[in-house]
Amino acid sequence: MSHDFRIGGILISTVVPAxxxxxxxxxxxxxxxxxxxxxxxxxxRPLVDLAIFIMLFGLFMLFLPDHWAI
Length: 70
Description:
The chain has about 70 residues and is mainly α. The chain has 2 helices and 2 strands, in the order ββαα. The chain has a two-stranded antiparallel sheet. Helix 1 packs across helix 2 (about 45-60).
């Protein structure tokens, strides 16, 4: 069960940092995949990018601690 956490008295859902982390890692991974030429092998790059983002977001949500309090 995920809980909200506080930053400066503001309650933030645990989904927000997982989304931000997933977005950052997926952008970095996209840059790496572009550099090595992976996107020449796929049919629809935006779908691949979306799938990678969803997988990373799911991983971050899976491994997120249950009790975050800042």
